[in-house]
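FIELD: query
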Amino acid sequence: MPSSQMIAARQRFFGEAAVDPVTGAVRDDQVLVSWFGCASFAVAMGGVVFLLDAWVPRGATSGYVPTTPEEVAALEPVAIFIGHGHFDHAADAGAIARASGAVVHGTAEHCVTVRKQVPGAELACKELGSSTSAPGERHDFELAPALSVTAIRHIHSARTPRHEGHDASTPVRPRPCLCDIRTYPPNLTDAGHLARNLFAPEGGVLLYQFRLGEFVLTWHDSSGPLLDKAPGVLDVLRGLPASDVHIGAVQGFNQFTNGLRDPRSYVEALRPKVFVPNHHDNWLPVMTARAEAFRTPVHEELARIPEADRPDIKMLIDRDDYLAAGCLAFDLAKS
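FIELD: result
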């Protein structure tokens, strides 16, 4: 029998109308995406529930994101896909996988990091290359019948010398937003969790594309300087089916020098109908700003793409859009 906790969690993340109140099954004619901070999302695609990254932001604040790892685990996801191993992406993966039985997907190093979080626990982890894999390496597999997954090795955001010329972008330097520390002060438990995971290694960076029928969802939790350091990856991305929805990181180290040029290169290569910025909220208030600070820079940067190829932009704003059921809902029949 499905647990009441699972049904309640799924109804909260995906909406009461989307979840059977008896079985907990999520409607299979839509793709439903629910944001729970930084680059972490719960997804129901054709009724299959899985996670993209696994960290509920906390430590510098407490309660800023209105959920817990326990509630995320109660979704009973079948899989957790790790983009890279830094704390702000994978710090809760071990606990969630242990509680839910989800299979973790990531590099060999991601698997090591996640297993260290829960010593002695038996965790299933599908290794997709390693930190030494070449950028552009590709892994293809099935998550469920008709639900195909492609993982592409790419690179982490990094600062590069200022690019000049017609393709130069305006630096993005939002002020850190310390106000949220005062409104949502951290408790000792959350601060300790952050401290224990603060220096988790990257372990390689993966981009994932999910395909169900004709619908294509692509997600990545970092946008590296591919134009400068790994242009071959862009050729690989161009070879993928065009994305209906592309959820991509916009906050990164190169924003201070080269603005949002790197995220734009991913959008241009992946050719989405809808682009959803992520990794752009106030997840670490001593360094970050609220998503509102990225609204204008994102729109201005993507305005450089010819209008016929430019995606619609769906901004997610913290805290309004955390666990906002129905905010990202896409009809499979209309993809």
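FIELD: remark
The chain has a mean pLDDT of 97.
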